[in-house]
Amino acid sequence: MADITIYQKPTCSTCREAVRLLKESGKPFKAVNYYEQPFTKGQLKSLLKKAGLSPKDVLRTKEDLYKELGLAKKSLSDDELLDLMVKHPDLIQRPIVEKGEQAMLARPAESIEKLL
């Protein structure tokens, strides 16, 4: 059985809900606070590929930083977005849950049940 990893921010309510659901499932999982253990560009790229998502799909467009950086007005490549997301983890939608060769953006939190 593949281990489950949840990449999350502990102060995020959706992340806390997803962690609660994982605990209730009884399945072993690892919680990674990606603010304390930042993504590498390669790791984030691989995770998004597993989820079938592009960097644009997980960009937090309501984040103040998104507005401050003027990202709505810029046309950035996936590589440039990944660089920004690694540098500024607040730009990444969360939580991202990985199980083996599958990954998903768990929004809403209940959607993780598909991986369980």
What does this structure look like?
With 116 residues, the protein is α+β, with helices and mostly antiparallel strands. It has one domain (4-114): Glutaredoxin (3-Layer(aba) Sandwich). Helices cover 34% and strands 16% of the residues. The chain has 4 helices and 4 strands. Helix 1 (13-25) links the parallel strand 1 (4-8) and strand 2.
CATH superfamily: Glutaredoxin
Strand order of the largest sheet: 2-1-3-4
The oligomeric state is single chain
What would the principal axes of the Cα set say about the shape? globular
Structural class: alpha+beta
Q: How many separate domains make up the residues?
A: 1
Low-confidence stretches: none
**C-alpha termini separation:** 11 Å
Largest β sheet strand count, sense and barrel closure: 4 strands, mixed
Helix content: 25-40%
CATH class: Alpha Beta
Q: What is the CATH topology descriptor? A: Glutaredoxin
Order of helices and strands: EHEHHHEE
Instruction: Tell me the CATH architecture.
Output: 3-Layer(aba) Sandwich
Give the number of helices. 4
Mean pLDDT: 95
Overall radius of gyration: 14 Å
The tally of strands reads 4
Strand content: 15-25%
